[in-house]
């Protein structure tokens, strides 16, 4: 069985990764309208647009905090537990957060998929 602290840290990583995805999408709205001549000027204009947009930067920094926590947790966590737990739970959190924000999450099939994912993660955690 995985230590409770490690499992909690991995769940927190999944929540940070999953919940920020839909907010990153909404925060990046309008990026397509940034137009500059030349590739370098276009790149710099897009970086400026995103870097000065708090609706993008707050979720981005939270997401990166999740990545840092994941990196730190990997020092002691079992990889066969950490990777599937974080990635599958992040997917579920992304779908739930997107649904709460009004995004189309796929209906009943998505709910069945989330339940099966939760069952698989539970078996993975119980088996380690």
Question: Would you kindly provide a written description of the structure presented here, covering whatever features stand out?
Answer:
The protein is an all-alpha fold and 128 residues long. It is built from five helices and no strands. Helix 1 (4-27) packs antiparallel against helix 3 (54-74), helix 1 crosses helix 4 (79-100) and helix 4 (79-100) packs antiparallel against helix 5. The termini are close together.
Please outline the helices and strands.
Elements: H1 4-27, H2 39-51, H3 54-74, H4 79-100, H5 108-127
Helix pairs in contact: 1-3, 1-4, 4-5
Helicity range: over 70%
Strand content: under 5%
The ordered string of helix (H) and strand (E) elements is HHHHH
Radius of gyration, CA atoms, in whole angstroms: 18 Å
N→C terminal distance: 5 Å
Helical/strand content category: mainly alpha
Give the overall form: globular
Q: How confident is the prediction overall: mean pLDDT?
A: 88
Low-confidence spans:
none
The helix count comes to 5
What can be said about the biggest beta sheet? Answer: none
Q: What is the tally of beta strands? A: 0
At a glance:
With 128 residues, the protein is mainly α. The protein has helices spanning 4-27, 39-51, 54-74, 79-100, 108-127.
């Amino acid at each position: 069985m995985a230590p409770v602290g490690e499992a909690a840290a991995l769940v927190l990583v999944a929540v940070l990764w999953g919940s920020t995805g839909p907010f990153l999408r909404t925060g990046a709205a309008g990026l397509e309208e940034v137009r500059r001549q030349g590739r370098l000027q276009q790149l710099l204009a897009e970086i400026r647009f995103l870097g000065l947009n708090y609706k993008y930067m707050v979720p981005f920094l939270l997401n990166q905090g999740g990545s840092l926590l994941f990196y730190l947790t990997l020092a002691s966590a079992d990889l066969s537990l950490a990777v599937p737990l974080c990635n599958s739970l992040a997917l579920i959190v992304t779908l739930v957060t997107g649904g709460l924000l009004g995004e189309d999450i796929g209906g009943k099939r998505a709910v069945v998929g989330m339940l099966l994912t939760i069952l698989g993660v539970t078996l993975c955690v119980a088996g380690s």
